[in-house]
Amino acid sequence: MVSSDVALLAAWAAEERAQPEGWDFSSLDGRMSESSEPWDLAAVWRTALTSGTRVLDMGTGGGEFLARFADALPEHTVATEGWLPNLGVARSGLAPYDVGVVGADPDEPGGHLPFADGSFDLVLNRHESYDPAEVWRTLSPAAASSPSRSEETNSVKYEMHSVCRLTRRTSPTHSFGPA
């Protein structure tokens, strides 16, 4: 093996050992790029939080993104995280905002959300995989048909219902979206 190969392998091994905490990838600054999305997710979340009273953030990572909205979070806000190394990071990062973090991995067999039916009126999800029927199960019937929600939010709910039907999952039992 050539010395440059040995050096390259050593550099890769060092990168592998130095895992980020939560979703803080600042160690990759200058070495990573990501494309911009055609929407402003922070603005979408901030708007949605104005009417949320019982909020779930799915797959919070280390809680860094949710913490940006600390001033807008309702008293009943909960987050899930499925990657064990992030669980402690998220719990300590969100504790100052009274946000509980529950271990839940939707990709695990039987990976249901550990909440009662109708527990939330707003479910936020930045990047976590999910079972549409599980998200619907945790949404309150009022959240799914609330006329106080914006047309855009009702459209998203309508799309979620369509996903439930297309994947042959149990669709919600309450009405929502345009008549």
TrEMBL record:
<dbReference type="InterPro" id="IPR029063">
    <property type="entry name" value="SAM-dependent_MTases_sf"/>
</dbReference>
<dbReference type="GO" id="GO:0032259">
    <property type="term" value="P:methylation"/>
</dbReference>
<keyword id="KW-0489">Methyltransferase</keyword>
<feature type="domain" description="Methyltransferase type 11">
    <location>
        <begin position="56"/>
        <end position="127"/>
    </location>
</feature>
<protein>
    <submittedName>
        <fullName>Class I SAM-dependent methyltransferase</fullName>
        <ecNumber>2.1.1.-</ecNumber>
    </submittedName>
</protein>
<dbReference type="Pfam" id="PF08241">
    <property type="entry name" value="Methyltransf_11"/>
</dbReference>
<dbReference type="InterPro" id="IPR013216">
    <property type="entry name" value="Methyltransf_11"/>
</dbReference>
<dbReference type="GO" id="GO:0008168">
    <property type="term" value="F:methyltransferase activity"/>
</dbReference>
<dbReference type="InterPro" id="IPR052939">
    <property type="entry name" value="23S_rRNA_MeTrnsfrase_RlmA"/>
</dbReference>
<keyword id="KW-0808">Transferase</keyword>
